[in-house]
Amino acid sequence: LKDNFSLTDIENRLLSFLGFFEDTLIDKGLCSAADVLQIALEKKLTLAATDHDMVIMQHEIGYLIDGIQKKITSTLIVKCEDKMHTALAKTVGLPLGIAAELILQKKIGLTGLHIPVVPEIYTLVLTRLSEEGIHFTESEQDIPMK
Description:
Blueprint: H1 9-17, H2 33-45, E1 54-65, E2 68-79, H3 87-104, H4 119-131, E3 137-143
Antiparallel strand pairs: 1-2, 2-3
Helix pairs in contact: 3-4
């Protein structure tokens, strides 16, 4: 791998940490590249019993309206419940699971592949996520003009 790509120092260190330069046999049968990556990540990044994860996302949007400069801050904080219900699992897996359930219930009637910027998808999914305690909080403030 090292010889086939020109890697930066950080890429080299990260791939080395994950074990990609080791001659380790993965005895899991036929594996895809995604399977190999998952095995490497699980080996190195599994949470210990005392570990907790948290997802924090914050957006700050500034704008000018009627001569007044304003800023909206939108914040999402999700904490893990336990080793199985991590914050990352909740914020990645739960939206997908909710969307799949809504499709099976025929509440989402779209066909084909869609990213979740379609109101038919995000309205229902965000409502359900909020019911699960996953939602952004927003604040707005005036910014003094200089």
